[in-house]
Design brief:
Number of helices: 5
CATH architecture: Orthogonal Bundle
Oligomer: single chain
Distance between the termini: 63 Å
Radius of gyration: 19 Å
Number of strands: 3
Structural class: alpha+beta
Strand order of the largest sheet: 1-3-2
Helix content: 55-70%
CATH topology: Arc Repressor Mutant, subunit A
Number of domains: 1
């Protein structure tokens, strides 16, 4: 799957996305790539505070979740953020935000009726 985004778009459950972002090291790696652009595994390891094998494992999970894309070049692999990979999270937040808003509206109506 080198040079491609992950199968997240192919319908894997968004639970994978939540799991990927639930780890603070993975989240920091993703945020770094989103903020600073494409980086090599070496550069990411220097900033991550963990070993290169650990960074590679975190990158594999981020790739599987559709959050990063890799690009091999010679002996190095470059990674870049895939912000569109956040779409399931955004959709989830919109759905649950709407549900909570509707619940709060019903609660407000109930409280107003109880006051009358």
């Amino acid at each position: 799957m080198s040079g491609t985004a992950s199968p997240m778009a192919a319908g894997l459950p968004s639970a994978l996305l939540f799991k990927a972002l639930g780890d603070p090291t993975r989240r920091a790696i993703f945020e770094h790539l989103a903020r600073d652009g494409e980086q090599t595994v070496h550069a990411l390891t220097d900033r991550a505070g963990v070993s290169q094998p650990a960074v590679s494992k975190h990158l594999a999970m981020l790739k599987l979740a559709g959050l990063v894309q890799d690009r091999p070049q010679g002996r190095e692999t470059h990674y870049r953020a895939q912000p569109d990979g956040l779409r399931p999270l955004i959709d989830w937040m919109a759905l649950h935000g709407a549900l909570w808003n509707a619940s709060f509206d019903r609660l407000e109506d109930l409280l107003q009726r109880m006051d009358n």
